[in-house]
Amino acid sequence: MAVEIQLFGELSVVRDGTLVELPASRKTRALLAYLAATGRPVLREKLCALLWESPEDPRAALRWSLTKLRPVLDEPTSTHLVADRDHVQLIDVAVDLARLRAAIPTPGAAAKVSTDVLRAIAPLVRGELLEGLDLPECSRFVEWCRAERDLARRLGAAVLATLVERLAQSDEDGRYEAIEYERAWRALTQ
Known about the structure:
With 190 residues, the protein is of the alpha+beta class. It folds into two domains: 88 residues, Arc Repressor Mutant, subunit A (Orthogonal Bundle); 92 residues, no CATH class. 52% of the residues lie in helices and 12% in strands. The strands form two sheets. A four-stranded mixed β-sheet has the order 3-2-1-7. Strands 4-6-5 form a three-stranded antiparallel β-sheet. Helix 1 crosses helix 3, helix 2 packs across helix 3 and helix 6 packs antiparallel against helix 7. The chain is elongated, with a radius of gyration of 18 Å. It starts with a strand and ends with a helix.
């Protein structure tokens, strides 16, 4: 997959190792974030209700946003943004949140995952999910974002806390590593 979408911290897209400039529209960015976080086809009507609550033409606004996202995501030989009459979805993209959820679907699952896997996914947790992407005029998006941030924070905290617990009981290098993970845990949970 040559397209990576990072939802932790500020939303970003990396294509073939290069950071891609995102559209200026906050709603277009929110659309990208929602599609990346859900990881499945989403009804156009649902997207319109989520991001365009005004009586204007929400389907036209959605179409406009999709035209702004295509150059960000699609490559000459690969289409990553797929839309038909009813659904919109992202395909063949790597998403940091999806990697975290695949490794630990629930906070309690962290205890069952190997230390090596936890070490590999810990760097994904780099700040708040969708940091700075707030749309106070879109109440449904705000509710969804709040729930996603809460779950992502709990998953990330579980990864970091489990690493701290395991590494604090190991050799000297492990204890130093535990201190770094504890700092990250404190920053995430405050």
